[in-house]
Each structure stands twice: as C-alpha cells, then as structure tokens.
Automatic annotation (TrEMBL):
Annotated DUF58 domain residues: 205-370
PANTHER family: BLL2464 PROTEIN (PTHR33608), SLR2013 PROTEIN (PTHR33608:SF3)
Native species: Mariniradius saccharolyticus AK6
Coiled coil: none
GO biological process: cell division
A Pfam family the protein falls into: DUF58
Taxonomic classification: Bacteria, Pseudomonadati, Bacteroidota, Cytophagia, Cytophagales
Keywords in alphabetical order: Cell cycle, Cell division, Membrane, Transmembrane, Transmembrane helix
Protein name (database record): Cell division protein DivIC (FtsB), stabilizes FtsL against RasP cleavage
Segments traversing the membrane: 14-33
Superkingdom, natural source: Bacteria
C-alpha cells in the first residue's frame, strides 16, 4: 500500500473531472433536480478512476528505462544524453521523462513528454551544455506512465546515479583538427599561408630556376654538372611550442557563461593538438604567484591526453600573477628556442608595463606570443546611442578602455613581442592562424 501511495500521481483530467462534479453539486444546492446528475457523474468518475488505476498498476514492471551517458562531456559544447525506455503494457502510454540532471545546470523543471506504442522500445535524447569543468553527478531517472484515460500516472524510478567528468572542449579540438588542413578551412576563418623556407634543414640539391634564392647557389655542384644548382631546405620539425596560461585573478572575468580561463584552456587544447599534428612538440605551463602544473614539450602519442588531464583540474585564484617567476622557470626548463603562447589579460597599459621587462627578456631567447582579450561588452556599449550627458561620459570611458587595449598590442609589437587581441569566442581560430603564420615565416 505504501508503494502504491509513493508511485501514484493524479492526472490533469482527474482534477478537471472533479472540478466539473463539484460544480454540478454546487448548482444542486439551488436546483434539486441536478443532484441525481451530480451523483451519477461522481460515480462514473470513480469507476473510470479505478479502471485507469488498475490499468497502470496491474503490471509489476510495465516500464523499463535507463540513462546512457558518454564517457566524458566537452566543456561549452552541446553533449548528448540518451534515455532508453521500453513499454511492457498492452496499451499505448504517454510518458513524462524527468531526469535529475546535475546541480551545475540549475534546472528544476527539466522534463519532456514522449509516446510509446504497446511493446515498443525507443531511445530518446536531449543535450546539455556545461559551462564549468569538473565532475557532474546525475540523480535518479523518473518515468511517469499515464493510464489510457489520463486520470492517473504511475511513477517508475530508476536509481541511475552516474558521474561524468567535464573536460576542456575536445569537440572543438576535433573540429579544428579536421578544418586546419583541408579546403574547407577558409569558410571558418583559417588561412593558408605560404612557407618561405627560412629553416636550415637540408633537403636536396636541384637545378636553379628563376626565383630561387641566389644565396643558396651550390657552386661545387654547379662546377660538376656544368649548370647552376641550388640547395633546397625543408621546414624544421619537432619545434617546442608551449601554451602558458595565467591563473591569476585577471582570468576570472566571465564572458557568455565561461571565464577567460576556460576560453584559454579550450584554445590551448586546440592549439596543442594542431601543433602535434604539424610535427612539433607541444607543452603546457601554468602560473600565478607561483608556477602551477606543467608538462614538458613532447611529441609522444599520448601527449594530447596528458595535456587534457592537466587542463581538467586547473582553476584560477585571486593573487597577482608573477611574470618574474615565469621567466625564471622558462630559463631553467626550456633550453631550446621555442614558441611561448602566453594567455593572460591586460585591462590597462599600466598592468602591461609592469610585466613588459620580463616579456622582453623572454623574447630575447624565444618567440613570445601574448594572447589577451577584447571586452566585447564594452564594444557593444560604445556603439549604442547616448541619450543623456551621463551616457556620453560612459561611452567616452568605454572608448578609452577599448583604445588602451589597442595601444597595449602596439606597444608589445614595438618591442618584438607577437600579440593576439581578439574576442574570447574567436580565440581558437586566431591562435591557429598565428601559429601557422609564425611557422610559415620560419621564426621557430
């Protein structure tokens, strides 16, 4: 009896029928002839209720269900969750699927309806887009089977308590892995860049043709063959490239549900995968007031998995980032000339100038690429018309912040430091383009 009480739910049609019966009984207070009609309706409703109740509770296990989760979720992407259900009743049922999704999504009314024919099995799907990395815990799966008359519903609960880990956006990584080296990449903003051959890894000797660099003429080979010959060089491979992520408080700023740190993590994962596919060695480092988790640059097959596991756990803090500690770590641990892609954020020129001596010192030994972010909210605000004096002042201040960002980028370039200033949403494309440009110019 207790089980029946816990599983029994009344349908909307029953409440509607009770309202009609109550209304007829109410009218019979003044019109006595209506009373027998009200009594008849009450008896009919009771009988139909019992029929519907026996229909859904007459079978011990009329509905079976389970949740199907992927091995891991991709942060900031739509991830599909499957619900497998089967109908063991001899009649078609209308099911309300109520899944207890993780608390991080803050949805308390998540559910949907579906219909199942007698004996039918089906797999339905819905998608979830996480905004935080970490472990997500699912609760029970509840299926509400409505009777053929729709007066009662029986709740079937399946204790499918499951945990899934949310990793940096590996779906973006796979997407750009496909797009970076095929004809479709121009649709997505990727550029094909000509390689100029500045490296010195010898490939072969070929006859001279118009346009070859005269500095590469091979006079000994020319003397033997009797015609001009030139040395040809191929692009150097296995160059170290490091994604260096600032974990200070400047990376806590949110944009569209994600923090700047999450955008940097997604971009560094995409960039590291492209570098590995391009034959280079990818590494990772993090820092704030101390050096955080690091991963030495390698080209081993498991390197991208190692980087992903390291990125899964890192979080921002509130301290001021110490670029001096970063400089000391790079000088001790990174011997070969490398590409250092530093993800940080400068909101004003003063913050950049405090770190400029360390960036210039790094640029003497490595190719330094500083990645920082445009504030697209300020961009949108500055384009809105001002209707008052205070609005004009606010727009002027917003324009000043936007102008300062561009001045910071120019100042860094003036000191020989590569820069990327872009909106967080386009960060992955911009980093890939810049990496391909640096490789094409033979800077590393």
């Amino acid at each position: 009896m207790l089980t029946l009480y816990r599983q029994l739910f009344l349908g909307k049609r029953l409440y509607l029928g009770l309202a009609v019966v109550a209304l007829v009984f109410f009218l019979s207070f003044w019109f006595w002839i209506v009373y027998p009609i009200a009594l008849f309706l009450a008896c009919m409703l009771t009988a139909l209720f019992l029929v519907d109740l026996l229909s859904v509770f007459g079978k011990k296990a009329g509905i079976q269900g389970s949740r199907i989760l992927p091995e891991k979720f991709s942060n900031s992407d739509a991830n599909e969750v499957g619900i497998s259900i089967s109908n063991g009743y001899r009649f078609a049922v209308r099911l309300f699927v109520l899944d207890e999704i993780p608390e991080q999504f803050q949805k308390r009314d998540f559910g949907y309806f579906t219909d199942l024919a007698p004996g039918e099995s089906r797999e339905t799907h819905y998608s979830l887009t996480p905004k935080l990395r970490g472990e997500y815990r699912f609760g029970s799966l509840h299926l509400f089977a409505h009777g053929p008359l729709g007066l009662v519903a029986r709740r079937y609960s399946f204790d499918d308590r499951q945990t899934v880990k949310v990793y940096p956006s590996f779906l973006q990584m796979r997407k750009y892995e496909f797009l970076a080296f095929n004809a479709m990449k121009r649709e997505y903003g990727l550029k094909k860049l000509r390689k100029f051959g500045h490296s010195r890894e010898f490939e072969q000797i070929k006859p001279y043709v118009v346009g070859d660099d005269l500095r590469h003429l091979n006079w000994k080979a020319a003397a033997k063959t009797g015609k001009p010959m030139t040395n040809h060089f191929q692009e150097e491979k296995a160059q170290p490239v490091y994604s260096i992520i600032d974990l200070g408080r400047v990376m806590k700023m949110p944009f569209d549900g994600l923090s700047l740190l999450d955008y940097a993590i997604n971009s560094s994962l995409v960039f590291s995968n492209i570098a590995l596919k391009n034959g280079d060695k990818a590494g990772l480092a993090t820092f704030s007031d101390q050096i955080g988790p690091t991963c030495e640059a390698h080209h081993r097959p498991t390197q991208i998995k190692t980087i992903m596991e390291l990125l899964y756990n890192i979080q921002t803090g509130f301290p001021e980032s110490d670029f001096g500690k970063l400089y000391s770590w790079v000088r001790k641990k990174v011997g070969q000339k490398s590409l250092l892609m530093i993800y940080t954020n400068f909101e004003h020129a003063g913050a950049m100038r405090r770190q400029l001596p360390f960036l210039r010192a790094l640029a003497k030994h490595h190719v330094v690429l500083v990645v920082f972010f445009e504030n697209h909210l300020l961009e949108e605000f500055s384009e809105q018309p001002a209707s008052s004096l205070s609005g004009i002042v606010e727009k002027t201040i917003a324009a000043k912040f936007i102008y300062d960002k561009r001045l910071i980028a120019k100042e860094l370039k003036r000191h020989g430091i590569q820069t990327i200033l872009c909106a967080p949403q386009s960060l992955s494309i911009q980093t890939i383009n810049k990496y391909l440009e640096i490789k094409a110019k033979g800077l590393i």
